[in-house]
Amino acid sequence: MGTHDVVVVGAGLAGLVATAELTRAGRRVLLIDAENAASLGGQAFWSFGGLFLVDSPEQRRLGVHDSAELALSDWLGSAQFSTDGSDRWGRAWAEGFVDFASGEMRAWLHGLGVRWFPLVQWAERGGHLAGGHGNSVPRFHVTWGTGPGILEPFVRALLDARRDGLVDVRFRHRVTGLVVTDGRVTGVRGDVLAPAPGERAVPSARDVVDTFEIAAHDVVVATGGIGANHDLVRATWPADAGRLPARMLSGVPDHVDGSGIAAARDAGGAVVHSDRMWHYPEGITNHSPVWTDHGIRILAGPSSLWLDADGDRLPAPLFPGFDSLGSLQHVTRRGDDHSWFVLDKTILGQEFALSGSEQNPDLTGRDVGLLLQRVKPGAVGPVEAFAELSPEFIWADTPAELAARMNALSGQDRIDAGRLERTIVERDRQVASGLGKDPQVVATAQARTYVVDRLIRVAKPHRLLDPAHGPLLAVRLSVLTRKTLGGLHTDLEGRVLRPDGEALPGLWAVGEAAGFGGGGVHGHRALEGTFLGGCLFTARTTARALT
């Protein structure tokens, strides 16, 4: 292929969607990525495949009453967009995304062959007042096939376009800069890396064997965020949110380092809201790691006690599954590198799930027989494996024994056995009352009024010290880096803006590199299920603007 209309930098979900839309319109595309072919699809491959959909048939079949107006209210309450004008484009993208999520998105994906698990989940319940953070109703639609299931139609479109001569794909090409001619981006330059055969997302060498410079009329940056660059994450973490610890886990592969954003900034593009991020406090070390500091996020139901490093409960509404960023900031403002879930065997079996395609083989493999195991007593296979293999899962028959083992793991004598037992007993009295004033106990009972939570996500209330539900379990939780909420400043067509607010000709950005639209579609805080959807929406919108 001698000439290219568009160079797309990054072969993750956003890059694949942009390429599919561009080639569908007959544009000639060069898709380049620093990793090998095994890593096609990037972070999305490893995702749970959850999509934020509004007023879907799946919701309606479950009796969930949703609307675009309610979804936008939830979004704005979570985002808390600034009123100084800096969030103008982010808010505009948010309004567009909610329209997309309540309108075309499901039909578009359904037409491409994507399907969903019928039991809609309720991630990020919030627990705040009506105008605050969180989803008012369940909106987390898990894709049948998880992350790979979302990627499937776009990988297929890439192969078709390659067969038709509309796309050239070059792996092991790392962009280090953009070519700018007379104020317009006219191409990319970078290093050709030595071949690195290996499995998906395994850290690869950066040995340079050649350089390249490629001309194109337009360049689309689809390189993702900064989650694996822990030094950069710490440097840009907002000072008023405390400090991120020296020991953190990564929820993304090593190549998610922010280099594409930096290259666009160096070429004249504006980067905004770089201090806005979405990391998780519920990370555990992967017992079978793929990338550096590989962590897995626990998706917990609402029953576990969430304790800080000193053994005190986190304040309301910082309960499991309610406000992850609020919980993270509580930990970082204390200066801790860990917190704890305290629960029992019954709660583990009913309420623990793990994020990621590889941790959900039933959904990823579209295995109905395996999926039916979720409604049976006991934990699903991957959770059982962590409970058995992970040293961060601590079992004990008594609070005193549990406290001793928690202290042994952390290497700090911070959990007082007597205080831990009082905390558990106080909670158990609330449950035993059948009513209670404790907001977590009340919220847990309320959660069971939703049929999906009652069936597969929320255990029947019971005393933690009831031997029938034992033994007790403590899980050490660590900070897990994940998403960048700020990014390259873009208008509603996806054109990258300069610091003066004017478009930088020839440069476009999609997905996480663009803060999922406008340099910050989520504002200060995100709703779960909007990250993959943000890649889909920005890439589709921008590519169609380019055609």
UniProtKB/TrEMBL annotation:
Xref: Pfam families: FAD_binding_2
Presence of the UniProt keyword 4Fe-4S in the record: no
Domain FAD-dependent oxidoreductase 2 FAD-binding: 5-532
SUPFAM superfamilies: FAD/NAD(P)-binding domain (SSF51905)
Keywords, in A-Z order: Flavoprotein, Oxidoreductase
Superkingdom of the organism of origin: Bacteria
InterPro entries, per database record: FAD-dep_OxRdtase_2_FAD-bd, FAD/NAD-bd_sf, KsdD_DH, Succ_DH/fumarate_Rdtase_cat_sf
An example molecular function term from Gene Ontology annotations: steroid dehydrogenase activity, acting on the CH-CH group of donors
Protein name per Swiss-Prot or TrEMBL: Fumarate reductase/succinate dehydrogenase flavoprotein domain protein
